[in-house]
Amino acid sequence: MDNILIKHTKALIDGEMIPADIAIKDGIILSMDGAPEGFVPDTVIDGEGKLCMPGLVNAHTHAYMSLFRSYADDVAFDNWLFGRILPKEDTLTPEDAYWGTMLSCIEMIKTGTTAFCDMHLFAGIPAKAAHDAGMRAVITRGLTGSDGGERRIAEALDEWNEWKHDPLISGMLAPHAIYTCDEPFLHRVMEVADETGLGINIHLSESPKEIDDCYAAHGCSPVEYLAKMGMFRHKTLAAHCVHLSETDIMLLAEHGVSVAHNPKSNLKLANGIAPVKQMLDAGVNVCIGTDGAGSNNALNMFSEMNFACLLPKGINKEGDVVSAKEVIRMATVGGAKALGLQNVGELKAGMQADLAILDLGQVAFRPLHDIAGALCYAANGSEVETVIIGGEIVMQNGALTKIDEEEVYYHAERITKDW
Amino acid sequence: MDNILIKHTKALIDGEMIPADIAIKDGIILSMDGAPEGFVPDTVIDGEGKLCMPGLVNAHTHAYMSLFRSYADDVAFDNWLFGRILPKEDTLTPEDAYWGTMLSCIEMIKTGTTAFCDMHLFAGIPAKAAHDAGMRAVITRGLTGSDGGERRIAEALDEWNEWKHDPLISGMLAPHAIYTCDEPFLHRVMEVADETGLGINIHLSESPKEIDDCYAAHGCSPVEYLAKMGMFRHKTLAAHCVHLSETDIMLLAEHGVSVAHNPKSNLKLANGIAPVKQMLDAGVNVCIGTDGAGSNNALNMFSEMNFACLLPKGINKEGDVVSAKEVIRMATVGGAKALGLQNVGELKAGMQADLAILDLGQVAFRPLHDIAGALCYAANGSEVETVIIGGEIVMQNGALTKIDEEEVYYHAERITKDW
What we know:
The structure is a homodimer. The first copy, chain A, is α/β, with parallel strands linked by helices and about 425 residues long. Chain A has helices spanning about 75-90, 95-110, 125-135, 150-165, 185-195, 210-220, 220-230, 245-255, 265-270, 275-280, 300-315, 325-340, 370-380, 405-415, and strands at about 5-15, 15-25, 30, 45, 50-55, 55-60, 115-120, 135-145, 170-175, 200-205, 235-240, 260, 285-290, 355-360, 385-390, 390-395, 400. Chain A has 2 domains: about 5-55 and about 355-400, Urease, subunit C, domain 1 (Roll), CATH 2.30.40; about 55-340, Metal-dependent hydrolases (TIM Barrel), CATH 3.20.20.140. The model of chain A has no long low-confidence stretch (mean pLDDT about 95).
């Protein structure tokens, strides 16, 4: 692995732009203040006129679903799921899922995402794709309780055992949701979590129907239901959390549950808008995800940050809530914490060298009064030029170094051509 | 002006992708089916793997305000306006406004916008900037009633008389809002509209405070107030319309008032979310604007279209409302109609040659199940390669042909460096 020196650059630190010379050795940031004595760079990057920012962490996606990009738009949820997504998902092979995941990796890298949490259906595939793309990934095989629950748990453990020594790959257990896993199965997953020490990744409080059904079946909200069950004694990442009571928010905060906010997917599937301001006020660790491309259709965290900044202002009728700086924190350190990634999400000595280099010459930064605002409100992701993950350059001046883009597009179009 | 032939391309027609060979002569689309006999192109563009779409129409902006990009983020409205925007706006010279407007033209052209409606403060400046940039513009000098109302009207008429013969420039009268123009002044503006035949461009029903104050002063909503006054006998473009009663929506539809929806600005300034579904259902001509960069901070219509598709689904809890096709219509023909632009907004023979050429090889279009969905939900504007306005190529493969980008950036940064 190359020693890298990024010279005469600006680094994004706590939402501010600070002059820096970044030395990277063995995948780790050795110094933010230039090459220490004895450091001999193999690669020198001219950082003049560039911004180095921590790589973005996409805290919730289903990466194989990029195959569904623009396949199921503008339809009601039941038609989306039963009419469009499930019939085609049912035809996908593991190899198809690999190409879909690679397609997501292309889009994520190009828009500055360096790590993602993937809830998937194809054991071993996302880990292989992330490995081939050079991305940091948390692999979480979706688990549903009825008919084959134990098989899925075994698959999840097999892939975890196969990949757990890869420095870029980690795992969580992913009971899909309270409406696809019954209580005994959720207890079984917690048992596995106890045995393995793995955290939990679950869809939670996404739709009004989920809330209504939970009250009807259990007399309480989905958050209360899991809290009573003891789920939150495990490190938990809950995706969506659109519909929350004040008690729910208090429970999430008390138990240190992280919430992956997916603003665009929640709008597209007509679920609503999550109470992000209220969660942040209560001290919940909120991070940001794109969800799958079938309900988005992009995996561009810059667009997601834009929504995350704007929606709370509009719905709370307060212009000074959920600032750009807070949202950048959510999309970097917040995500890293939620995913259990050690030393990820900030640019400082000792951290993993996961970063995106942006061209400050682009119009989004002209003029540049405030870097956090420019990133969250004006940039669209196309400003990203170079991406480094764990010290490896995975994109250089717009060219992916580890992925053959055209090969991936060829397969994605081959797989979906008769849809 | 060159004769242009775009060969072997795809054209976006009624939201669908149709094979085309586009011949352009004297600024007009001569044919969508190849070069007619005797047509000799000066310029041939290879359209293989590209999409030609109608240029986007930004129906509401204040283009000089790009100087304020990321200058006033995450603050409450009063602080935004009185603490940040007005004190600096007060220091701007007409020359400053020219560079700010040119800066907006750069961003708009790069993201496929070919026409914009500009409410401004600097007579003659936006017309000159649009002319220099090669953009189609509707210039509307903002009019306020107290102290200097007649002077402003005179300025508006002077610039209109100076520029009305320019094929790319047209004008409207722009009484700023009901809270900055009293009733006698609004009648005076209507008198001028009668004399000149110019349409009206006005901010309307933007904030909760505007509604409350109007009820307190006039016992009715802002829309009812203008309707009673007879304003809507003129061709009217009303920006924002966030807070509307059912009666308001009915009045807008009945009177053929066009509404410029500015979803991102409305969120950022904490005004709320406009009832777009309800307006469309009632038959209102809704179009899309970015508003000024001070309350956005981008002038990227792709991002605005994304919000316009997603917000109505989330707030109405219906996934099948306000489709991508409808939003593309709003951002093209809807905008052209609202701005009174003749033969603009569609690609067909006889129309003005205002179009953007996008690279279908970009990841947003891979795979490509539905072009309208891909444009509204996955594209971010960076897919635009070439832009033609009135038959003139203003951007070719990412390079602006009429604007010296670095000169504009230099001035924008010079003007704002001590802010």
